[in-house]
Amino acid sequence: MTKDSPATEPHYRASVALPASCLEAFTVQGKRPDRAAAPRTPEEISELLRMAQREHWAVVPVGSGSRQDLGNPPERFDLALATTRLDRIREYEPQDLVVRVESGCRLEQLQELLAADRLCLPVDPPAYRRTTLGGMVATNASGPCRFGHGTLRDYLLGIGVIQADGSQTRFGSRVVKNVTGYDMCKLYTGSFGTLGVFSDFYFKLKPLPPMEKTVVGLFKNLPPVRSALSKLLRSPLIPIAVEFLDGGASRRLDRKLDWNGKIAGYALAVKFGDLESAVDWQVKELKEIWGSCPDGDMLVSDPREQARLWDCLREDHFCLAEPPLESVKLKVNILPSQLVQWIEEIERRLSETEVPFFLRAHAGSGVIRIYCHLDPSTSQAVRLAGLIDRWRGLLHSARGSVVIERGPADLKNRVDAWGYRYKDLKLMRQIKNRLDPREILNPGRFVV
Amino acid sequence: MAVETSEPGFPRIEIRKELVDLLDSDRVLHTPEELLVYECDGLTLHSRMPDFVVFPSSTHEVLEIVRLARRHGIPFLARGAGTSLSGGTIAAEGGIVLELSRMNEILQIDLENRLAQVQPGVVNQHVTRAVEADEFYYAPDPSSQVASTIGGNVAENAGGPHTLKYGVTTNHVLALEVVLPDGEVYRLGTAAGDPVGFDLVGTFVGSEGTLGIATEATVRLLHAAPAVKTLLAVYDSVSEATQTVSGIIARGIVPAALEMIDRNTIQAIEAGVYASGIPQDAAAVLLIEVDGLEAGIDQQLEEILEVIRSRQVREVRVAASADERKKLWAARKNAFGAYGRISPNYYTMDGVIPRSKLPEVLGRIESLGREYGLRMANVFHAGDGNLHPIILYDIAREDAREKVMALAGAILRCCIDVGGTLSGEHGIGLEKREFMRLFFSEADLQVMERLKQVFNPDNLANPQKIFPMRRGCGEMSSLSEDSRDRLSRFEEDPEFVRF
């Protein structure tokens, strides 16, 4: 089998292949694909996957590429299957609060259309401007508003999937409530492109909140953060987002927004979105239940300032620029009530390693993110790998986890990106084996 | 002592002895008299007696029973309150029914993390009862919530009126402990942040007992809304009511609940103990609830009243007290029980349509009823487009069952035709498995079948549910033009109308 011989790839070359000059752009964690294709239809995806089966190609489905740092580096990478040409909005039913979009459609493009009708898909993951819906579903991407609105799994109603063997399948539908057959939308959400290639989705929509305001509580020390959080979570308030920032993060945010030192130290940013009277009441009530808990607070109520703040807060480094290659992003999944104790543990251990870092968290949802920068000339990668092992061990009984969402090869070669060691991994492997027996889809990158 | 279902060579005595060794004899039912109650559930059109009904009280006992079933190669399934409306808890091939009512402990309540960890036999409403003093509650509220259990709700992905705003069971389950047919206990999902790997909790919820048995669930608790407003809008025409529903959704308003009740249902309710003074000559009423903070609640209500007033409405009543509100909801939640007053038998259906199609589809359903010469009633979750057409019939009349099933098929086809699905919350079970090909292609079914084989390779866990029995003849595309023809083929098949 000569891999690059035109004779074995007639269809591939004729309709969907991208020129060799594009390949560099599809590099995933240092690995360049042998070929790339951008199909326009589900049929063309089928054709490509059948060919991949025959040739035993390793296929990486790619949207904007904004989440390809996730997971382990590809074992093999024969074909980059770009969904960028599948970018249409197929059906839009504003009166039903439902939309059908193709997987290569960008989130921002969809939101612009919806906003004209005061509607939205209430998810706000990083790389907001670039990310495609396919990439978001594959990685179950979420952002700050997950606290109030939930995650993509709560909005995906229907899905078109091209199976590894090329067969075209469809699950769910455009209705908002459905128990017809297994809930396959759940299985595919977060499946990391390992079970099939998505062609299109039906999403449930929500009305845009009439207005939004944010209270930022500022804290010199950690213990009051815990009581502020606990008071908030026991209250009837219904914030959309509850974000935690450590000193490093709030300093960066302050700089990014030109706030000239308005925020420093630990911060909790609480966003409310509702009718004006409901927002104002909540802002007042929050200050009341917090009392003297924070050392200070500020209110962001100007709509433009509000938009700028959350445009920054949803992005990893508060900006859209690509982070440097050696930068590391870890996700630590914990019980929400253990936030402060974990922040303390992480601060203490990372300080010992002399790795520069800052911390953020979806505080109400138990998701901490560590951003740090490894100096390749030192043994910092070794020490960070040791810490990841330690944390995984500590989190095991609560079924928590530490995921390397971005990191240099030096780190990923030492520890698995997912570190998933629970018993149900066996079931996940079997599912993968049944649905992609030849292992052509994203081999080696996910937990299976 | 033989039960009608035994196959020759079925080691009944041996299995019974093993079960008794495990559980003591008072927790093992085996005589036909004892088993009779378990031959059907909320779907009375099908029945089949299990060989044994057992009452385990721990995950370990469930595990041992599943291992025993596996050793003997006999089917098993779990049962909670037996309120399934799709035949989910009927032992279609006999075997062992695990009655989980003794596993009814609330193991942990953790308000700081807004969750509760419960055993599967805990009654839905008891979860809320355990946390309501702290102003928390468990959101999914199927009409059966005073009886149905969390285990059953998980298996069927139960819904309810307030799921319009708050989502169905699957949106509220964080983690599960399950006993799988391989005779092992697994933990799925997590309450700690995001789960890693495939979403097995989401896959398991709604799998109707065909993947295994949930022996523990960690569910999300919500803070109760401090303010609630409930109103009743009375209409002289069904279409004005359905237009109002579409109008509310199209305005981007998501009420906590948006229910519709038609004339036949009103008459049934008003004849009974839950009468709440709804005018009996009304064509339809909408029961609408908004909830949230005290601040803003009146504005929410006013926006809805604006839509209501833009159509022909006879009367609008806003519940003035918690008592009045309870009364309105009692009428709605007990509607099903009330049909007995106006008809000897009734069949509760479940289908979903895009909510903008309500006016069109309700009209079609009404004319289908006339065509088949059967009375119909409707009480349903209008805001979700989740229909519950009720077919009223008298089993004593000739051809009654055949006619009911033919009408039911025609109604489902009507739902599929407008882009809807076969079930919104009752499940497929035995009831609708032969309709699955109306919605799914052979390739779709194969993928789900492969998934099932991972969990349930020998098909011992709740056999005959969800999947159509008959093999398809070649490729059939879902939602195709010829769905009408295929359905009529099913209807003509003597085997299809089986009770």
Total domains of chain A, how many? 3
**Quick one: overall form of chain B?**
globular
Major β-sheet annotation of chain A: 8 strands, antiparallel
CATH architecture of the largest domain in chain A: 2-Layer Sandwich
What is the arithmetic mean of pLDDT of chain A? 93
Count of extended strands of chain B? 20
CATH top level label of the largest domain in chain B: Alpha Beta
| Helix amount of chain B | 25-40%
User: What is the number of independent domains of chain B?
Assistant: 4
| Low-confidence runs of at least 5 consecutive residues of chain A | 1-8
Mean pLDDT of chain B: 90
| CATH-scheme architecture of the largest domain in chain B | 2-Layer Sandwich
Structural class of chain A: alpha+beta
Distance between the termini of chain B: 25 Å
What structural class should be given to the helix and strand makeup of chain B? Answer: alpha+beta
**Beta-strand segment tally of chain A:** 18
Oligomer: heterodimer
Describe the protein:
The complex is a heterodimer of chains A (448) and B (499). Chain A is of the alpha+beta class and 448 residues long. Chain A has 14 helices and 18 strands. Chain A has helices spanning 10-16, 42-55, 107-115, 133-139, 146-149, 184-188, 223-234, 247-256, 276-290, 303-313, 339-353, 380-395, 409-412, 425-435; strands at 35-37, 59-62, 79-82, 89-93, 98-102, 119-120, 156-162, 168-172, 197-204, 206-207, 211-219, 241-245, 266-274, 296-300, 327-333, 357-362, 367-373, 401-406. An eight-stranded antiparallel beta sheet of chain A has the order 14-11-13-12-16-17-15-18. In chain A, strands 4-5-9-7-8 form a five-stranded antiparallel beta sheet. In chain A, strands 1-3-2 form a three-stranded parallel beta sheet, with helices on one face. In chain A, strand 16 and strand 17 form a beta hairpin. Residues 1-8 of chain A have low confidence and may be disordered. Chain B has a seven-stranded antiparallel beta sheet with strand order 15-12-14-13-18-20-16, sandwiched between helices. The longest helix of chain B is centred in the last third of the chain and has 18 residues, at 400-417. With 499 residues, chain B is α+β, with helices and mostly antiparallel strands. The radius of gyration of chain B is 23 Å and the shape is globular. Chains A and B meet through strand 8, helix 6, strand 10, helix 7 and helix 9 of A and strand 9, helix 7, helix 8 and helix 16 of B.
